[in-house]
Hints:
This protein is 29% helix and 26% strand. The protein is an alpha/beta fold. Its EC number is 6.3.5.5. The active site is at 335 (nucleophile), 419, 421.
Amino acid sequence: MQTSIDEILRRLGGNEAAATLTGVSPEAVRKWRSAGAIPPRHWPAIMTATGLTMEDFSAPSSSEVPPGATAALVLADGSVFWGRGFGAHGISQPSELCFNTGLTGYQETLTDPSYAGQIITFTFPHIGNVGTNAEDEEASRIFARGLVVKEDFTAPSNYRSTADLGAWLAKMGIPGIAGVDTRALTLRIRDLGAPNAVLAFPEDGKFDLKALAAQAAAWGGLEGLDLAKEVSCTQSYEWTGGTWSWEHGFASPEPRFNVVAVDFGAKRNILRSLASAGCKVTVVPAQSTAEDILRHKPDGVFLSNGPGDPAATATYAVPAIQGVMAAGVPIFGICLGHQLLSTALGGKTYKLERGHRGANQPVKDLTTGKVEITSQNHGFAVDEKSLPAGVEVTHVSLFDGSNEGIACKAKRVFSVQYHPEASPGPSDSAYLFKRFVDMLG
Length: 441
């Protein structure tokens, strides 16, 4: 900020006046000070009220590269976080900058298709310490657009490792940056919401910071963006392999039920979990119609996780889901699948300020009273007030009270906002796959 936060608030008449003008709470205004920035979405209203210009909000950018810096994370407001690049050289596409609080499973997180359109900041400092291996990949490629970490990664210390993190990212074509104050960055995202950003790791070491900030500012963000069809498979295929164990590797279970999984960005361990629960799994593309799905004569249908705005994906997914429900086939959805099922039942979704991302999210199952620690990755949520009669709220977040699960017994469907397949994360929620199979039986 070229003009200080205190000066801007003085011109507006104080915290309460600023809160009224921008439609936020006085507490949110106070957080502007700790973050050292004001969210760009509030700039137009403040400029109109105070006569300030864009230059007064944008951080002054210098083309001088600090000693040792080879990469830069540039935010839409012009803020620059310098660091040391690794992985693939280049400049990421403009992305939403988010943070993940998981302590393990960085490779599974990076290959989760739900991170399409995002740059991931890990709050845990020891990223890269166990290297990478093909067995821990949740997709054939990385859909996230960049990686931000605090510490330089060390040599891998795990017998399963086949490549270090930097070499693996380079192979995948993804840039990373180390040496960033991820605590300050996380507080900024927490207090101000997820900003647009660009991660630059140029091979020639030259940075056009003004152009990079302009690219980030010009990007429209994830709202209204359908990314599911970009990460989905393009044709149907069968999946038979079960979950992995240290003693036996991947299982080869015998199937009892025929399940169709709609791929909005499905992780491999979801398919493995369905197979281990006794399902022969046929995976179909995101844009499959009800007729495409029912052609496989499924005993049940699974709606997978995925990226982007559920309201955008709903334009083609909801009619298909409603067609499956009309045929009386049981449905189980997670993450984006939960949001789409809720929409198909008459509910609405909204964008969260910072989202839920990590393997330590507490959720209460209202049907049993038990609390489970869950793995989550979502930036949108279901507005439970919009759910019609006959749709039961089954799970709730103990972080912020947002909806984490629904069920409609009349239609034999249920869904949760989180990831019961674990990978990474705890296995507290694995019972949901059995709950689904019990419906089929």
